[in-house]
Amino acid sequence: MDQYGPSFGIESALSVSAALRLTREDSVHAGAASFLRRAAQSLADAGCGDAPKGPSESIDDEVRVLSDLITLDRRWLSADEVGRELQKDALKGGKKHRLALLPGQNLVLKVADARKLATESLFDYLSDLLLSNLFFDDSIQLLGGMMEGERLQIVIAQPTSTEFIPSGQNLRRASFAKTCAIPPREP
Asked: Counting C-beta atoms within 10 Å of the first and last residue's C-beta, which end of the chain has fewer, N or C?
């Protein structure tokens, strides 16, 4: 067993297409965002890690807890297969993601190093994805994880859409409408 997660051959790991099928089966996770929600909830109670930097949870504990959930739910993906997908239809990524189009599925495959996210914590990152699903009726899916060396990589699928690019005003309206269920007054 690796530091975080199992040591297994490719035949034991899920393909991207198999992970996508799991997210579409309501009997498995009750919808696309359910595994993502469970992952975020599992991190909410992560305690102080091996070398805590302060009162907040350490990334060590978050990586360990998320790795345990991925193992429990059999959501380890083949790093080789994900790597091939990332090379096929690669998109320019930012500092935290490597991106590729998944042909014929209107999805973008996103891979992020769990320790290099631009949020305070892994919990915050997953919570942000859930909020995007809530406020923008998106369907971002946590497919699972994979290991590159000793580093946990989070694998996500997100619909491609250029229909709605929110402005600051639209963000405030969407937030208010979702939380209060009352439309905001026009300025």
From this structure: C
Domain of 50? 14-159+167-175
Residue 172 DSSP SS3: helix
Provide the domain count of the chain. Answer: 1
- Report yes or no on 171 lying in a domain: yes
φ and ψ at residue 100, rounded to 5 degrees:
-155, 145
Q: How far apart are CA 178 and CA 180, in angstroms?
A: 6
| Mean local confidence (pLDDT), 100-127 | 89
Phi and psi (nearest 5°) for 102?
-100, 105
- Domain-located, residue 24: yes
Arithmetic mean of pLDDT, 117-126: 87
This prediction has a pTM of 0.72
Spacing of C-alpha 112 from chain mean position: 8
Specify the residue for token string 């402005």. Answer: 167
